[in-house]
């Protein structure tokens, strides 16, 4: 049994991180940018560890230079997602890579991304929402500029605010002002935590940034009291098992904590994060969960419903997707 055609709800992807290496290579060629060092001989992305992954990721982003590049990227990403049964997807988009935090440039990039999303919804039946995202290791000031971009464009398409990047850089409180701006604008909130930073980082993120979702959050498994808090406060985890296994944030598939988190009553969802970087797809994630933990269609239906309930969209969209 393969789960390729089963409908899927995916909450945690990064638009730039979904770019196939061939797509980035062709942009680099068009623009005469030499980034040959970021590819293996077989054409895949080459990196040694998580910090190097972030460097390679940012090098790939240098080829994405205008709204039109993001239009093409979004088209390609949604075609691939739809081919794996994804019917609703949220993607992180960083104002830092879309105009450098300038609000009017950001509006132009967003318009291009939203055009591609509208066309994909019409042609492929996939809905995309945008979570504007700051990059943690770019620091608090850049995070505030990103939050301003997010706040100014909050609407039917930009529905959330988030933070990715190097989790061990700074503390959540350094980003509280940015998150306050986003919350006051009415955006829904998520933040990467507990991928690398331990359960303390999750606890601090919940306390200082008041998010309703945590990106990854797998380190919660190391602290039963925190797991209980997560259950009681209805926080949803955006778990990306293939990403964790590939980057060695956790052990292998058999040791991945998603099963134990779910058994403890934690709301878990399943996403790919940056699929071409981790050699994964939503079909692979579902197939591996079925193979490793014996998940069946009922389990995947439940996970989809959990994701939809935690999705940063309005009730109308939720009803259309369900
Ligand atoms: N940006 C893209 N992928 C990421 C990940 N897995 N963790 C943190 N930041 C990221
Ligand atoms: Zn991520």
TrEMBL record:
This is Adenine deaminase. SUPFAM superfamilies: Metallo-dependent hydrolases. The keyword Cell division does not apply. GO terms for molecular function: adenine deaminase activity; metal ion binding. Keywords: Hydrolase, Metal-binding, Zinc. Its EC number is 3.5.4.2. Residues 7-322 form the Adenosine deaminase domain. The keyword Acetylation does not apply. It is an enzyme of class 3 (hydrolase). Its cofactor is Zn(2+). Gene3D superfamilies: Metal-dependent hydrolases (3.20.20.140). The lineage of its organism: Bacteria, Pseudomonadati, Pseudomonadota, Alphaproteobacteria, Rhodobacterales. InterPro entries: A_deaminase_dom, Ado/ade_deaminase, Metal_Hydrolase. Belongs to the metallo-dependent hydrolases superfamily. Adenosine and AMP deaminases family. It comes from Octadecabacter ascidiaceicola.
């Amino acid at each position: 049994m393969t789960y390729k055609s089963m409908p899927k709800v995916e909450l945690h992807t990064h638009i730039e991180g979904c770019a196939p290496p061939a797509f980035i290579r062709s942009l680099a060629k068009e623009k005469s940018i030499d980034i040959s060092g970021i590819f293996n001989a077989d054409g895949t992305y080459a990196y040694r560890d998580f910090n190097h992954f972030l460097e390679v990721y940012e090098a790939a982003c240098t080829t994405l230079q205008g709204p039109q590049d993001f239009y093409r990227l979004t088209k390609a990403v949604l075609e691939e997602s739809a081919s794996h049964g994804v019917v609703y997807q949220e993607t992180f988009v960083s104002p830092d890579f879309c105009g450098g935090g300038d609000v009017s440039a950001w509006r132009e990039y967003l318009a291009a991304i939203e055009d591609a999303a509208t066309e994909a919804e019409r042609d492929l039946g996939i809905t995309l929402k945008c979570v504007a995202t700051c990059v943690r290791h770019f620091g608090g000031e850049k995070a505030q500029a990103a939050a301003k971009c997010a706040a100014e464009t909050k609407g039917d398409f930009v529905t959330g605010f988030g933070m990715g990047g190097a989790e061990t850089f700074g503390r959540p409180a350094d980003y509280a002002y940015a998150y306050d701006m986003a919350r006051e604008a009415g955006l829904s909130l998520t933040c990467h935590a507990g991928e690398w930073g331990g359960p303390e980082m999750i606890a601090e993120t919940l306390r200082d940034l008041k998010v309703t979702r945590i990106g990854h959050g797998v380190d919660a498994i190391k602290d039963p009291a925190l797991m209980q808090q997560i259950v009681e406060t209805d926080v949803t985890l955006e778990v990306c098992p293939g990403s964790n296994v590939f980057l060695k944030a956790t052990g292998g598939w058999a040791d991945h904590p998603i099963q134990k988190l779910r058994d403890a009553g934690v709301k878990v969802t399943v996403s790919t994060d940056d699929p071409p970087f981790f050699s994964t797809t939503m079909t692979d994630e579902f197939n591996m969960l079925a193979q490793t933990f014996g998940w069946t269609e009922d389990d995947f239906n439940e996970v989809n419903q959990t994701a939809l309930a935690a999705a940063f969209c309005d009730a109308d969209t939720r009803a259309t997707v369900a």
